[in-house]
Design a protein that fits this description.
It is found in: Cell membrane. It is a multi-pass membrane protein. Belongs to the multi antimicrobial extrusion (MATE) (TC 2.A.66.1) family. MepA subfamily. Pfam families: MatE. By secondary structure, the chain is an all-alpha fold. It has two domains: 11-232, no CATH class; 245-452, no CATH class. It has 19 helices and no strands. α9 runs antiparallel to α10 (193-219) and α14 (310-337) runs antiparallel to α16 (350-383). The longest helix has 34 residues, at 350-383. The chain starts with a helix and ends in a 12-residue tail after the last helix. Residues 454-464 have low confidence and may be disordered.
């Protein structure tokens, strides 16, 4: 195998390898955040409340497409990293090809199902009156573009799986930039309104997919999207889906919990809803950083685990935990100190400012637990432990529901505000016990293999 593709996975100093995988993800998240703000700004300029409502109503539909993409991407990505750790590039090419074509086929099936059922889907999303027409226009573009939108989410993760985090970032940024350029053209110049915003988003996904295909076919020596490598079998599908299902369920449960939380918050008035909205936007900065660590290092962990490199594996896990916890707590502390000023920058309503500070404090407390829970989930996915990763995904969603209901019954609004923090802490504890349960056995397997097959310590210093 070409050592350029594997340098950061196999031989780069651990701190350098971690930052190589994490920083491009942070930049991608920041670009996505900027795009979301810009997109909302352009649609807001149309001065049509029904259109703004349509974008909000379509969010669960977009979440389904992302979940389907992660179903393939998370499973195939971790499997590719493990195969590279085993020096099995031929199978890695088959897996990446199966990942791509199954994503396309699933998207085509999804489109065929949704097109005739568009009206019932809109009703399920809650679209009514004027917003019904705009939601239909918006979602129609995503239904037509479903195959490539799903492929975009899945390919990004497999590109990153071989350590090519910069190439992964470039693909994501290309889509975001094209989207931002096309938004005002389609919305205002061509008078396509909200359908133009959706079309720009779909084209952005197409550009990203084109880049990822180019990289995997022309630049990568260990992956492929060629139809000749599309050779699905029971082993490949099992390894993709046993991990991918956990990512799919996590996305699904996060959408459900978000919907539940908003519905309970509405019961206590607009000030609570406004406070939640402001706090979520602020905390998103910290969440993106912790997500960059928990998601970015998965290929490093998977490769080291599969290569039976115990020392490097534990160093990656320990340093990632240290960096993530340190940065998350540091940023959270700064935001906590200036919480009053931050909330005041978004609202002049005294009620919103007062309750917003409490909500922000609760959500800042949950970020550290959410980050650790995500890291545990990522470790289980990297190890190919489908049961543990699925338990974590389900736990993060299921635990929140009774905690939210019980909190509302016993402590009213305060119970709702702190429900997410308590459920994330509970999931974090479950993750710790699951990790302790598999750690000894997994590392014992590595140590046994190390004793039989001495590691090659030759250092190869190259630039990707």
């Amino acid at each position: 195998m070409d050592q350029k593709s594997l340098y950061y996975l196999e031989k780069a100093p651990v701190p350098k390898a971690i930052m190589h995988m994490v920083i491009p993800m942070m930049l991608s998240f920041i670009a996505t955040l900027i795009y979301n703000i810009t997109d909302a700004f352009y649609i807001g300029k149309l001065d049509n409340t029904a259109m703004m409502a349509a974008v909000t109503l379509a969010l669960p539909f977009s979440a389904i497409l992302m979940a389907l993409g992660n179903l393939f991407g998370a499973g195939a990505g971790t499997y590719v990293s493990r195969l590279l750790g085993e020096d099995n590039a031929d199978r890695a090419k088959q897996v990446s090809s199966v990942n791509f074509w199954l994503s396309i086929f699933t998207g085509a099936i999804f489109m065929a199902i949704c097109l005739p059922l568009l009206t019932p889907i809109l009703q399920l999303l809650g679209a009514r009156g004027e917003s019904l027409v705009h939601t239909r226009d918006y979602i129609l573009m995503f239904v037509i573009g479903a195959p490539l939108i799903i492929a975009n989410f899945s390919l990004e993760q497999t590109v990153r799986a071989e350590g090519a985090s910069t190439a992964s970032m470039m693909g994501m940024l290309a889509g975001v930039i094209i989207n931002m350029v096309l938004d005002p053209i389609f919305i205002f110049l061509l008078h396509m309104d909200i359908m133009g915003a959706a079309l720009a988003s779909v084209i952005g996904n197409v550009i990203s997919v084109v880049w990822f295909i180019y990289y995997l076919q022309k630049k990568s020596t260990v992956q492929s999207v060629s139809i000749k490598d599309f050779k699905p079998n029971k082993e490949i599908c099992k390894n993709i889906f046993k991990v991918g299902i956990s990512a799919f369920l996590l996305d699904g449960f996060l959408a459900i919990t978000s919907l539940l939380f908003n519905n309970f918050a509405v019961l206590y008035g607009d000030s609570i809803v406004a406070g939640v909205g402001i706090s979520q936007r602020v905390v998103q900065i910290v969440d993106f950083i912790s997500m960059s660590f928990s998601m970015g290092v998965v290929p490093l962990i998977a490769f080291a685990y599969s290569a039976k490199n115990h020392e490097r594996l534990m160093k990656i896990i320990k340093k990632t935990t240290l960096y993530m916890v340190g940065i998350t707590m540091g940023l959270s502390a700064i935001l906590f100190v200036f919480r009053a000023q931050i909330i005041s920058a978004f609202s002049i309503d005294s009620d919103v400012i007062a309750i917003g500070q409490i909500i922000l404090m609760a959500q800042l407390c949950s970020t550290i637990f959410a980050g650790l829970s995500a890291l545990f989930t990522g470790i289980f996915q990297a190890f190919g432990k489908g049961i543990q990763s699925t338990v974590m995904s389900v736990m993060r969603g299921i635990a929140f529901i009774p905690i939210l209901i019980l909190g509302n019954m016993l402590f009213a609004v305060n119970g709702i505000i702190w429900a997410m923090t308590i459920s994330e802490a509970f999931a974090c504890i479950v993750g710790l016990f699951l990790w302790l349960g598999i750690r000894k056995k997994s590392l014992l397997e590595i140590s046994t293999k190390e004793a039989d097959e001495p590691q090659n310590h030759t250092d190869i210093i190259v630039e990707q």
